[in-house]
């Protein structure tokens, strides 16, 4: 604990869903405390290494479930520190999806037109830049050329990147040491701190209870900065308003564990989880065919061998994002660089005569890793994930000092989800295997199950109390004064990278949270001005991390 055990607003998590209301409410005069499970790192700390104790193991959390695995941020700034900064808006049709329910998944008050002004607010606040073909990397260019050869279209992806500062180092997934990636460390977080918000890293929230004056008490443990399994202390903070933004793999666990103290949770807490329909295909590119069919070559005479060069996803094909297509046949295909290690293990051998994920043939494709092209599928899944009983502490049972835990999420793909993946896989093959350009194989689900870097919908907004944990203002049903503003509030998969939509929804939720705070006696007003843009990422101020 530092200098206070009470506040007006207590926010759990510092990603998009936490930092945006932290800034808006603090700037409006509320006392705000943000509890973040992970450490506080800034540009100088984002080393280019995968060894234990580097940023790569400190800022990630890989939670293994039964049939689904989630890779997310675990640091001040949350997913914004480890994302690839791809920021497309969700297609209009996603807001009209029915899934297997047979009725609209999103609340009637939220569609693309209603969300566009909030998208605009985020675009100005980060800011987000349009890319052109001069910003596209070798791997993105190969993907675009292959799409054109197949009669498809491809587009540069809008991104929250300062192009004048980007060095094309390709380490942005582990944080950006050059502060070119516009994470929350460069805008909402420093502006929140300047307005008086306290951000406390290495504070893992366990549960929420009520206070005698109709407020809430948040119970937390403090964690060791090296071994996250080690609890160094515990405490409580009382607040009039609680905003839960711990991520779609942790928010429902905190709320489930709070049920004994708070009373019955909505039935949809911890249900309807979506992995955003994500799936990866790796193409082993034939360099000769790239030269012969696409007419591509680099100055040194190499046709491609550019997998490791440049940023993350910079080029996508959105041909199948067509609202006239039937549900579960719509998807985006995005070129992606996935770092060595996890990606190398799960990349599969096309046409393997033995095991597809290890052995002599696997060694051969690893030898040719510079000629890989990885395509990231984001499709329409069926919200089939369910969280079981929560573990004693945290959102999972920690297996290692950092990065790795086992959670209570179970996920068994329905026929709809499987059919969507199959259609998207076929689409990738049609583009990349044409005229012998490559051989393509999806990453296996059999070894560890499905996986997502964009978990969604485990406490979603909606109009139906039976299938949505939150009302359309993001307030937890039956528990006034508790709001959820992270990816768990998004009702369903978006078929594109979801960070922009999560941020826009968080911005949209703030006016309602301000009014709820006023109703509960907090002196606060809504502030619309954008945060200041910093050029150097925020580090923990004296006293803020204690």
Question: Which terms summarize this structure?
Answer:
steroid Delta-isomerase activity; flavoprotein; 12 helices; 546 residues; 6-stranded mixed sheet; globular; alpha/beta; GMC_OxRdtase_N; sterol metabolism; 23% helix; FAD/NAD(P)-binding domain; 7-stranded mixed sheet
Walk me through this protein's architecture.
GO terms for molecular function: cholesterol oxidase activity; flavin adenine dinucleotide binding; steroid Delta-isomerase activity. The protein is α/β, with parallel strands linked by helices and 546 residues long. The protein has a single domain, classed as FAD/NAD(P)-binding domain (3-Layer(bba) Sandwich), CATH 3.50.50. It is 23% helix and 20% strand. It contains 12 helices and 19 strands. It has helices spanning 16-27, 55-58, 79-82, 112-125, 138-149, 188-194, 251-262, 287-294, 342-346, 360-367, 415-432, 499-519; strands spanning 6-12, 32-35, 60-66, 68-73, 155-156, 198-200, 203-210, 216-223, 231-244, 278-285, 315-317, 331-336, 372-379, 386-387, 396-398, 404-410, 438-442, 450-452, 482-484. Strand 8 and strand 9 form a beta hairpin. The longest helix is centred in the C-terminal third of the chain and has 21 residues, at 499-519. The mean pLDDT is 94.
